[in-house]
Design goal:
Layout: H1 2-20, E1 32-34, E2 37-48, E3 51-57, E4 68-76, H2 81-95, E5 103-109, E6 112-123, E7 126-142, E8 145-158, H3 162-183
Antiparallel strand pairs: 1-2, 2-3, 3-4, 4-8, 5-6, 6-7, 7-8
């Protein structure tokens, strides 16, 4: 029995250490406040040498099954935000072939773009998840290098909550766009 308690204690401590070991590759504020909700850094990655991603969740949410999430990505390259939007739109056009819910809107303001899209996940013809993402693309110079910065808000509904969620999207859209336009995130890298 003592060995089992020791093992459980060790596992809980290990999980706690792993949960706290999130690398902050760049600083954009932590928490990020968007549309009245605070999002704290919970996950990060550097998938490529010049590409960094950080994900933020409200208190009580988990990456495995969240209702709201905020993400900031920085990609050091010379492509424009329009090229990034066009690539995402091409991906969404492909998705439309297998996901009838998929749809999107694009808005532009002085070379910065907002792409809002909706996608779903189904099993046996029944929707089990619907997700709306609001992507905000802008070009920046960070530490003397050209970078595309993508900030995005993601919200989901599951099961019986899907229809009310979908019906609420038009009334939330202006707040999402205004919140994204007013956020003015400026990623700061300490050693890049």
């Amino acid at each position: 029995m003592k060995a089992i308690i020791t093992l459980i204690t060790f596992l809980l401590c290990s999980l706690g250490l792993n949960a706290q070991a999130v690398t902050e590759y760049f600083n954009v504020g932590n928490p990020i406040k968007y549309c009245g909700t605070k999002y704290s850094l919970v996950w990060s990655a550097q998938p490529q040498e010049n590409y960094f991603v950080q994900e933020y969740l409200p208190k009580g949410e988990s990456l495995e099954r969240y209702n709201q999430m905020f993400t900031v990505s920085v990609l050091f390259w010379d492509r424009t935000p329009l090229e990034a939007v066009q690539a995402k739109v091409a991906e969404l056009e492909q998705r439309k072939k297998t996901d009838p819910i998929t749809n999107y809107l694009v808005a532009e303001n002085n070379g910065e773009y907002i792409l809002e899209f909706i996608v779903s996940d189904s099993n046996d013809g029944e929707m089990n998840t619907v997700e709306v993402d609001v992507h905000y693309y802008k070009q920046m110079t960070i530490n003397g290098r050209n970078a595309s910065v993508l900030s995005f808000y993601s919200c989901r509904a599951y099961g019986d909550d899907i229809m009310p969620f979908m019906q609420s999207i038009p009334e939330k859209r202006n707040a999402w766009y205004e919140g994204m336009s007013n956020l003015k995130l400026n990623p700061k890298f300490s050693n890049k």
